[in-house]
Amino acid sequence: MLKKLYLSTVLFFMLSAFFAFGQDKMSWRMQPVTIHTRWAKDVNPNNPFSEYPRPQMVRSNWCNLNGLWEYTITDLQNAVPSRYEGRILVPYPLESALSGVERSLQPYQNLWYMRTFDKPVLKDGDRVLLHFGAVDWQATIYINDKEVGSHTGGYQAFTLDITEQLRRGKNRLVVKVFDPTDKGIGPHGKQVLKPGNIYYTSSSGIWQTVWMETVPADYITGFMMTPDIDKGTLNVKVNAPADASIELVASETGREVGKIGGKAGALLELPVKNMKVWSPETPFLYDLTIKLIKGDKIIDTVRTYFGMRKIAIQKDERGVDRIFLNNKPYFNFGTLDQGFWPDGLYTAPTDSALKFDIEIIKAMGFNTIRKHIKIEPARWYYYTDKLGMLVWQDLVNPNQRLRDGAKEQYEKESKETLEQLHNNPSITTWVIFNEKWGAYDQQRITEWVKTIDSSRIVNGHSGEMLYVNNELRSPSQNPWVSSDMTDVHSYPFPRNAPKLLGKARVLGEFGGIGVPVIGHLWDDLVTGWGYDGIVSPTTMQRQYKKMIDSIKVLEGLGLSGSIYTQPFDVEGEQNGLITYDRNVSKVPLSVIRSINSIVTNNVLSEAKLEQLFSIRNAAEQDSIYEEEMRKFKVGSKDSLLLRRISIFARAKNDAKTADVASNQYIESLVDPFQWHNLKFIVSFTDESKDVGFNFLLRNYQLIDSILGENIGENALLTICYNEELKPLEMSEKPNWDSSEKRILSKYGIVGHIFYLNRKAMLAVDRDIRTFVSAKNTLHERYPGSISPVDMNNDAWTVFEKSDDKGLLSTALGWVKKAISMEEENAAYIDTYANLLYKLGSKKEAISNQEKAVRLAPKEKSYLTTLSKMKEGGQTW
Hints:
Layout: H1 9-21, E1 62-64, E2 67-75, E3 86-90, E4 109-118, E5 127-132, E6 135-136, E7 138-143, E8 146-152, E9 158-161, E10 170-178, E11 191-192, E12 200-201, E13 205-206, E14 210-215, E15 222-228, E16 233-239, E17 245-252, E18 255-263, E19 267-271, E20 286-294, E21 297-306, E22 311-315, E23 321-325, E24 328-329, E25 332-337, H2 351-363, E26 368-371, H3 378-387, E27 390-394, H4 406-420, E28 427-434, H5 442-452, E29 457-462, E30 465-468, E31 471-472, E32 485-491, E33 504-511, H6 537-556, E34 559-565, E35 584-585, H7 589-600, H8 609-612, E36 616-617, H9 621-633, H10 639-651, H11 655-668, H12 675-684, H13 693-707, H14 711-730, H15 736-763, H16 768-781, H17 788-801, H18 805-821, H19 826-839, H20 842-855, H21 860-871
Parallel strand pairs: 11-12, 25-26, 25-34, 26-27, 27-28, 28-29, 30-32, 32-33, 33-34, 35-36
Antiparallel strand pairs: 1-14, 2-3, 2-4, 4-10, 5-9, 5-14, 6-13, 7-8, 7-10, 15-16, 16-19, 17-18, 17-20, 20-21, 22-23, 23-24, 30-31
Pfam families: Glyco_hydro_2, Glyco_hydro_2_C, Glyco_hydro_2_N
Family: Belongs to the glycosyl hydrolase 2 family.
Organism: Chitinophaga filiformis
């Protein structure tokens, strides 16, 4: 019955090899994942993200390089590999299911990509540019095995001119990636190598579009656009050869509304006739054509767009400092969007999915998104511009440990980000630091950002004052120095920020109501968390309304903006308004919009938002589970159904159904070594009679290597304790000998080690002989299970509790072995000396104790012991 389940370690690695090495002969497929979005099925492995990747600087002559590349993972070598393991779908991160790989990149490894492409047809002087939307974290690029450039920074676009390295016909493109995530010096946002709580799975490698573009010999490399609605002009500076001229033509639906010419590199003021301003309610965008001219010839043309808007801190009619949009008070009513996806991690499954998040946030009645510690692809900002959404853009915080080089890397990446996103009218606020994560030189950094971009307001530190359950966790002095606003975080219920002259008051984060929806969880074995515990959808609706009612009151008291945490669940967090897979709304969308309307004055649409966005309500889930339970009771063996029934039954305290369903699910597993399957086996294997028990016994070490933290071993030993040792310990006359044989037979070496340690622990204060006997068996039979520290501690225990020379001699042997492993450890030598002294070898004891004192002269107890030995006194 358990034939499928009893996969050995060898079979596991055979399966891994099949997925890795077999892919180059197979078509791509998404790797298994607990939940996925509706767009996963629309991913085209031949042409993912086929849309033009840079909407604010458009040329017609381009080629998309997304698709299936070859990949391999090596140690930190520099030589270009000669062979590759399999295929990976670009631009999905290595760790994502949509990459087709779903592996974690370690700090001691390089990830290599390879593909070929045809040399474009070039006219005289044409150049070929290779663009990367983003590669996390350090990328080195090779063309035909020759290094052509590199970039460090996981969130910024970069471009290389590869013209000189191209040859006729096929060309070979290789990308080497090094990404230590949180173990390095670079900004990594919420990505960590061991995700959990508010930190999530890493996204290594290429995670945005790769593309080529053909340009003339002299071409426009970039431009900066800054609107000035008070003057009715757009200030434009075009980067191009200095001996060329520029012509700017602005248009509205094909009709020219402004035109100006000038020199490349000069600041040009483009007048806009009958100017229309941009706002979330009327996100009006103008088209702009930029032409590069030499003599009377147009040599390069790019198309872009712009919006006329102004953001500033000004006083309202009551003299209150508020955020003003286009010279009018404008309450920034937003939500905290982290930009993670269950199937693509940092990368949305499709362009439609990328757009969906902004559409549904706006439909719920928000006018602002705080993009939290992540920089999105250019098309995301295009949709915020086009659809009408204010963006508070977080800079990605420095590595929190601030290792050497971390500050410099943070400032380098931040400067690139500020320049890269300057032209998007939707971005109105830069957020520099968050909750003291890696914060340093706050005043200097805040003022530095303002010198780079004076057209936006700056939030120098969001949530440096953090309240959780009405308790201030991080009091600070002068926390908003040089900032344009005072900002607090308050969980769960909102509160106002302090009033300071010239600064708007904002609530940078609040909310976080936790509602897990079974069947829509990243880790379906975790009940989830929220800042005020886990509640039902009905309770959430009631709490959310109270919160938004409070926001309206606080607005009248001077609050100028608020950010609710959060629109979507993210991995282990179930505090979103909508589930991580974007399928279920915890509170009906129309209800959320109605509640929010008191702040944003939205006119409710007649259309039912749930139908418009294909979203179910959490309240409907009970009927779905009732139907699934009916299928289960009539004998359905669908694997995912069995998993959901197991979890749902456990949540309902239906132990019998949970046991039956979980055993059937585990029994059906073809690949139990997927992390979500391993977690299930561990979670639902409570007794030795369970289907998963023998799997745990055979594979606990491999489970530990995948899940970490001795999770497999601890699960096995918990069963051993409950079934074997606990009854033994509670017995008046325990038979340790017969139990030892049974445990060794049933649980193997790991059970025997556990038994011996437990026996010794219980005997230490009752029978020191039993303690020594159990420990000596461990020292002799399983020396690898005992560290030098344990050897020393065991020996010291015997020294303190026994005068028996035989037992003391045994303990002396233990600590002597510890010293042989760490010769200069003063603590071990001190133990050794004390044992010698108690055994009567006083001269040798004093010699060793003198050595301990020399090694640790500041340890006063060693010197005291030495004095006692020399005086012939007792040291115990």
